[in-house]
Amino acid sequence: MTDRGKSTAEWREFEGLVARIEQDAGPLGLKVTSPDRIRCRMTGRLREVDASIRSQVGTSNVLVTIECRKRGRKQDVTWIEQLATKKQAIGADRTIAVSSAGFSEEAHAAARHHGVDLRRLSDVSAAQINTLLHLDFVLFTHKRCAVARVGVRRFRTLQWTVPDSADVDFELPSDTDPLHPIFCDTDTGDRWCLNDLWRDVQQATSPYMGIVKGEPPVVRTACFPYPGNVTVDTVDGPVQIGDVLFSIALWLDVEMVTFEAARKVEYGANTAVPLQRVEFASRESAAGDWRLSLQAPKDARDTSQIQTGGNWPGTDKT
Predict the structure, then answer these.
(1) Which of 44, 89, 199, 210 maximizes the CB count within 10 A of its CB?
(2) Which whole-number Å values give the CA distances from 18 to 96, 160, 240, 270, in the listed order?
(3) Low-confidence spans in the chain with pLDDT less than 50
(4) Are 230 and 129 part of one and the same domain?
């Protein structure tokens, strides 16, 4: 519901931010989806909403839809009437209309008549944020790894012993593609790659245990023994192997996001105390959507009023 001239990433971020605010403001058990598609009661077709909130009150299921507009001017009565029609068509119990620029007086009157809740979301300065929400910075830790060495020992019929790092017959080239399936089980035909070995290591052990943040890389080696039924592709053709000594360089980078760099917004209606929110987000695209947030009423005086949220590896996103 945003301007077509704006990039998809920009308006999707606006919608996602609204969804996160509503998620953190509500009780446990809310299911917030952004965007969502809901079947129209009249046509049977799916219609998209910017976000939806589903909850259960007693024995009843409640559906609230959220529609957003990030534009430079106040939204007028036309949009509210469109949302009221859509609300009825998809059977929503309530609809929340969010604007970055506010609403006209006629829009407020129409919203009251149609049961549409109006919200405004706007950026605020650090000086306007409740001091309870001030954090100097947040640190995000990023796990890093790189293939250091892949040593291979040919299959031998002697009694197996743990191979020494120097006890290898050859090494794979340093430019070996970690995603290329170079290993083959000659009994089943299954193939796998170096990246699959790395996944196996992470499932079986905690490879980063003891690694110190910000320190130089540490090289750790895992041994993969095979009973004579595995080959590896080489420039001279497949070679029967007995052991793979897989060495990985591991380190932990620390990313600091300061309070000044965090997203600071205010969200609410004209008739109530707005919520203020501070979001610290990782700037590294490879990290995915990593965030830590603090949210509280603008006039909050106690830390018990702060709601925290976040999204990082290991958190439940349902």
Answers:
(1) 89
(2) 10, 60, 57, 17
(3) 1-5, 316-318
(4) no
**Pairwise CA distance, residues 14 & 132, whole Å:** 24
Residues 11, 2 contacting (CB under 8 angstroms): yes
pTM given for the model: 0.77
Q: Which amino acid is at 88?
A: Q
- Residues 236, 275 within the same domain: no
Number of domains in the chain: 2
Q: What pLDDT, on a 0 to 100 scale, did the predictor assign at position 157?
A: 84
Q: In this structure, are 201 and 265 located in the same domain?
A: no
Q: What is the CATH number of the domain that holds 93?
A: 3.40.1350.10
For residue 181, the one-letter residue type is P
Q: What is the pLDDT of residues 265-280, one digit of tens each?
A: 999 987 789 999 999 9
**Domain containing 274: what range?**
8-138+257-311
pLDDT of 212 reads 96
Q: Are 241 and 230 in contact (CB under 8 A)?
A: yes
Q: What is the DSSP string of the chain?
A: ---TTS-HHHHHHHHHHHHHHHHHHS-TT-EEESSEEEE-TTT--EEEESEEEEEEETTEEEEEEEEEE--SS-B-HHHHHHHHHHHHHHT-SEEEEEESS-B-HHHHHHHHHHTEEEEEEEE--GGGS-GGG--SEEEEEEEEEEEEEEEEEE--SSPP-PPPTT--SEE--TT--TTS--EEETTT--EE-HHHHHHHHHHHS-TTTTPPTTSPPEEEEEEEEEEEEEEEEETTEEEEEEEEEEEEEEEEEEEEEETTTSEEEEEE-TTSPPEEEEEEE---GGG-S-EEEEEEETT--SGGG-EEEEE-TT----
CA dist 293 to 66, 134, 138, 184, 270, Å? 21, 11, 10, 47, 24
